[in-house]
């Protein structure tokens, strides 16, 4: 979303991470990403993205993200990690999510370094590394304001 | 933060195999193949182990590109025999099979497919692992990679766990000296591909860089010698060390797109591993150079290329790779591998899908999508320079 300031310059709305607005913006951005659509065309599997508190975040935030055949069918905040059962859980601290979104952390390397945890079949995820890389690229395209 | 994992001990040089005379163990299971028997290597290793007072059992059913079924059989034997030492003796297939058999023995609750960096295996409660390579290329003796073939799906499973890195790697240059020249070339180029891909990987680090660059220098200098003259002991020893160094390098950074494509080609057209990855190496350099120009230029300079700028250096590096391929009489394009164009094109989508699903490009400098893979496979078939 764009609007203009008093000088007429176009400004881009920033979405607070983590928030309902941010995950909706991520969904919209992902559904525009053709490279993701192609790389994940056979993917079936939903995720909980769990952001555990540290730095400026004082309460755990959980996103539900339903990825299906190259599209994001749904994405929203759920009240807790037990609120929804999913095939995969990708979990990390707020500061590591921040690094991931800024492109400072590789999503798979972060798993190997135990900065993130994955529940679900690693083998399945590893067959879609291009899709994983596009997911992160998409997240970094969302205009984000951190805590 | 990153970790560098390697065998606790690497024994190298003439007579390295004698290390086994002092091994502390009660029962050893040697995982190997029939060729190692015929070459007398199994009896030599057994003899050294017996001198150390170790009882020996041999599982010699490992086939090239070992299948799930083979390692399950080996795992069953291990469970019956209860070794406290497993010895992987042979090429990459034997050592990879030894790693997988070791996991199944220590963790009977797991299946082969579950070997993953995210699964705590808790190995070394029952046995330790010694790897003894008899070829100079795979680097398996030093890596945390395990490649097992799902024969039903004709798919190579690229498994990995830091825990499966051998406790001891023994690099005795006498063992690879029996390799026929074609195998010298195939395996040596595999080592070169490991080292070059490790050096440009996004997960590279100072440790992997040092090992990769030295391995590249050794391969360019000694592979032609080792190929031409089977009696050149210096070249054999250098190549044997380079293969392990390249293994350490890629194991602690990553491989790349040449491996993703090579695994797909190898699985579908039964091409030996080293040859199938090396044929894609020059194309992968050209493809990746838009994202890793300076890294490739550093490699070029390390092998003595003189160039005005990075573009010229990379172009000369590609020429040097082609030159090396020709020198050891390896194909520079897929069409030179005896694969006819129509059957290649018929399987193009399958090749692309397998490459897309490969874990090899996790950290490649440029991650190809479907269209790029299609073009890469076709360009590499015809021997066309990459222009996209």
Structure description:
The complex is a heterodimer of chains A (147) and B (388). With 147 residues, chain A is α/β, with parallel strands linked by helices. Chain A has one domain (20-141): SCP2 sterol-binding domain (Nonspecific Lipid-transfer Protein, Chain A), CATH 3.30.1050. Helix content of chain A is 33%, strand content 32%. Chain A contains six helices and nine strands; from the N terminus they run βββααββββααβααβ. In chain A, the strands form three sheets. A five-stranded mixed sheet of chain A has the order 6-5-4-7-8. A two-stranded antiparallel sheet of chain A has the order 1-2. In chain A, β4 and β5 (61-68) form a beta hairpin. Chain A is globular, with a radius of gyration of 15 Å. Chain B folds into two domains: 9-176, Rossmann fold, CATH 3.40.50.1970; 179-382, Dehydroquinate synthase-like, alpha domain (Up-down Bundle). The longest helix of chain B is centred in the middle third of the chain and has 23 residues, at 206-228. Chain B has 14 helices and eight strands. Chain B is globular and about 60 Å long. Chain B has helices at residues 34-38, 41-51, 68-81, 92-106, 181-200, 206-228, 233-251, 257-269, 273-278, 281-302, 310-327, 341-346, 348-356, 370-382, and strands at residues 9-12, 27-31, 55-59, 85-90, 128-133, 145-150, 155-160, 168-171. In chain B, the strands form two sheets. In chain B, strands 1-8-5-4-2-3 form a six-stranded parallel sheet, sandwiched between helices. Chain B has a two-stranded antiparallel sheet with strand order 6-7. In chain B, α5 (181-200) packs parallel to α7 (233-251) and α10 (281-302) packs across α11 (310-327). With 388 residues, chain B is α/β, with parallel strands linked by helices. Classes of the chains: A alpha/beta (147), B alpha/beta (388). The interface between A and B is medium-sized, with 19 and 24 residues.
